Amino acid sequence: MTELEEAIARHLDAYGRAVHEREVEALLRLYDERVRVFDAWGAWSYEGLAAWRATVEQWFRSLDANRVEVRFEDVQTADGAGLAVMSAIVTYAALDASGAPLRAMQNRLTWALVRDGAEWKILHEHTSAPIDFDHATAILRRESSQY
Question: By the 8 A CB rule, do 59 and 92 touch?
Answer without folding.
Answer: no
